[in-house]
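Protein 1 of 2
SEQ + STRUCT:
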Amino acid sequence: MESRVLPDPEVVAVLSAKFVCVKVDADNPGPAEKILSQVKGNTLPFYAYVTPDGKFISGTSGYRDTAVFKSDLETALKSDLMRVPPDAEKKLAKMAEQAAKDLEAKKIPAVVKAAKDVDAVRGTSESKEKVKQLYAQAIEAGQQKIKEAADLCKDAKFDEAVALLATMAKDYKGTELEKPAGAATKAAERLRGAAKEPAAAKKMYELIVKECKDAPAFVELAQAKLKE
């Protein structure tokens, strides 16, 4: 399991995103003994799946190949014990509905907040997944804005690019796009400076390549400039 199954990228992705993993000594399980005693079988390794508040969901005994282990994980996640309470689901459904409207209206900070709020709610929910999908769409839209800003710089529309990125930096503050937006802004400003001072252009392009790696579109643009 440790050499073939657990290192599998798809398994790692699910475990790291959806589970808190605890390794227990079978000869000295301590407080986990009550949980492990509910696993049927006598062949190691044992895998026990429990809710965040300690309710036993299911367990397996013995080796599980990658496909079967992934199925075990998904089945545990879909357990009724893992679902949010009905009253919480109603609130989440309203949040998902509002997040969809906010995304359509390009109110990115509202979508980001909704994603953080639903992530704090324990349990599985279709509404939670919907908000996460909307958040992913918002992130994709932000990535496209960085590319759009790079294209504006190609056309020497530096002021427009900087303005676009300034708005984006505010919208995506606290997300995985915060650093790329900052790097892109720095790169756009240096491209604008290179256009105003041709003598310093080469140095500006080199700095972009060196310091703005979080904004690949701008690095590619600077590299192309260096080859001209």
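Protein 2 of 2
SEQ + STRUCT:
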Amino acid sequence: MMRRSFRATADAVPSARHAVVAFAEELGIRGTLLRDIALAVSEACTNVVLHAYRGHDEPGEFEVTVRRPGDELEVSVSDGGVGMLPHADSPGLGIGLPLIAELTRKLEVRADDDGGTTVLMRFEVEDAPSAAE
């Protein structure tokens, strides 16, 4: 298992993506699946940076966790921000979550008890050798 925390700033997105990709590569994941994982993680982390800490003076933090249960790679991105609230001044078209859903086997977005949000992404990993969590 891999678990890392990042400050919710734009420069943390590539750091989080690289950490997840490096862990996935250690598990033997390559090719298109690795690229899909990298893109989905980038989108999820970018959502945290853009939305989670709206209205806060300082950026908060987010945590990325990666596990390998069975034939899946499970990646979660969690924040302690304001939760998923609609806002008219959004800088994007809202395509991040639909894109993540397209890239994953399963996507769950849940509101955490503390007001934050967790994005749980599961990717099908059949060809890579299994490794301990």
